[in-house]
Amino acid sequence: MDKLFVSQHPMIAHKLAILRDKDTDHRKFRELVKEIAGLLAYEVTADLPTEPKDVQTPLAIAKCQELKVKVGLVPILRAGLGMVEGFWSFIPSAEVWHIGLYRDEHTLKPVEYYNKLPTAPTVDMCLILDPMLATGGSATATIDVLKRWGVTNIKFVGLIGAPEGIAQVHKLHPEVPIHLACIDEKLNDIGYIVPGLGDAGDRQFGTA
Q1: Which member of 24, 30, 103, 124 is catalytic?
Q2: What's the pLDDT tens digit per position in 81-118?
Q3: What is the reported pLDDT for 100?
Q4: Of the listed 24, 30, 124, 202, which one is catalytic?
Q5: Are 84 and 96 in contact (CB under 8 A)?
Q6: Residue 2 C-beta-side C-alpha neighbours within 13 Å
Q7: Terminal CA-CA length for the chain
Q8: Dihedral, CA atoms, 122, 123, 126, 130, nearest 10 degrees?
Q9: 41-80 core/surface letters (b: 16 or more CB in 10 A; e: else)
Q10: Which pLDDT score, from 0 to 100, does residue 109 have?
């Protein structure tokens, strides 16, 4: 599990407790998703490579560092959209590419319905954003899409993961790091994370 990173940040734990609460309204839920994503962004980007850059201050030349890679954010529609602003506030230069997947309620398998990636990659690294890593189907399908696109430097970032989903991603894509705010107990018989927080898309967009 050397590719699994679970945040120990107390503010993430605190905000996640409010996020889980069934009485948290849609507006507050969206704010919390954005805030937790921003805190995760700090941890997820800790190993990004940099290169030297000389910067002229008002007094002298400062030896500085700047990012060496172009980062792409890939939110899995629709729930992943809520995490984009948190990452954008931290990496404002990041490109955003959307991939639409929905889970077939009978098979629990992902079905791709939207993909507007350009012909060739325009970034060096992709961060897949999805609040819930449940069965792992959407995550692995998105990784497959990005690899076919030509990107091999990929990370998955979520809020809550189930052991089943983590195992599935590691089985099919063992080199892809998984960053989470928390790991929950299990999936129930209809593929929802328990205790989880319900449907992250419905709770963000008020469609429950």
Answers
A1: 103
A2: 999 999 999 899 999 988 887 767 677 677 778 787 88
A3: 81
A4: 202
A5: yes
A6: 1
A7: 35
A8: -50
A9: bebbbeeeeeeeeeeeeeeeeeeeeebeeebbbbbbbbbb
A10: 75
- 202 assigned to active site: yes
Per-domain residue ranges of the chain: 4-205
Residue 107 known to be catalytic: yes
Cα 182 to Cα 160: distance, rounded to the nearest angstrom: 5
Q: Is the pLDDT of residue 183 over 80?
A: yes
CB 33 within 8 A of CB 200: yes
As given in the structure block, the two tokens for residue 117 are 């990636």
156-180 residues labelled b (16+ CB within 10 A) or e (exposed): bbbbbbbeebbebbbeebeebbbbb
CA gap 133, 136 in Å, rounded: 6
203 is catalytic: no
Alpha-carbon distance of 189 to 105, in angstroms, equals 11
How far is 207 from 26, CA to CA, in rounded Å? 9
Active-site pick, 107, 122, 152, 207: 107
Strands (E), 116-167: 125-129, 132-133, 154-161
Per CATH, the number for 4-205 is 3.40.50.2020
Which pLDDT value is given to residue 1? 67
Query: Which amino acid type is present at position 76?
Result: I
Is 47 a residue of the active site?
no
- Kindly report each contact of residues 17-26 with a partner whose C-beta sits within 8 Å and lies 24 or more positions away, as own/partner: 19/159, 19/197, 20/195, 20/196, 20/197, 22/198, 24/203, 26/203, 26/204, 26/205, 26/206
Tokens of 126: 């992709």
Quote the pLDDT of residue 118.
Answer: 82
